[in-house]
Here is the input.
Amino acid sequence: MSKSKHPRNWKRTGLAVLLIGGSAIVTLMLIISSDRNLQFDAKSWRQNSYVLSGSDIRRRMSRDLKRNVLVGGMTRTEVESLLGIGESWIYSDDYDLAYRLGTQPGSGTVTRHGSVISAGGGTMWFVLKFNEQDRLIDWRTLGF
Here is the structure.
């Protein structure tokens, strides 16, 4: 039985493949994660006022909207000039404006037997609350 003349070459090759593969996976994950969130754009938000179930533009912009655009104390007029007129809010009296974001990703209704009967999941909403002076005091994403 003969020994390999270059046993270290196999180790080097394996290590190189592992490093290249790992780098490719990390790069792919960074590209995918950067694509999930979009910078808020008022025009795109208003154009997508009636979001189809397959669209997630508003949902992807909502993170930037919450963190970088809305500021406590903004007037209702200022908010509506950015977001447009809110949709009727039938689920709760706790919020004054609501905007449909689309369906919750990766959710569905499961029966007691384990079958999925609604792959689209519930509806996601961006909701806002104003005080008595019509100043913004709370904003968040809710799913139903």
Residues 7-36 form one domain. The CA atoms of residues 4 and 84 lie 72 Å apart. The longest strand covers residues 123-130. The mean pLDDT is 76.
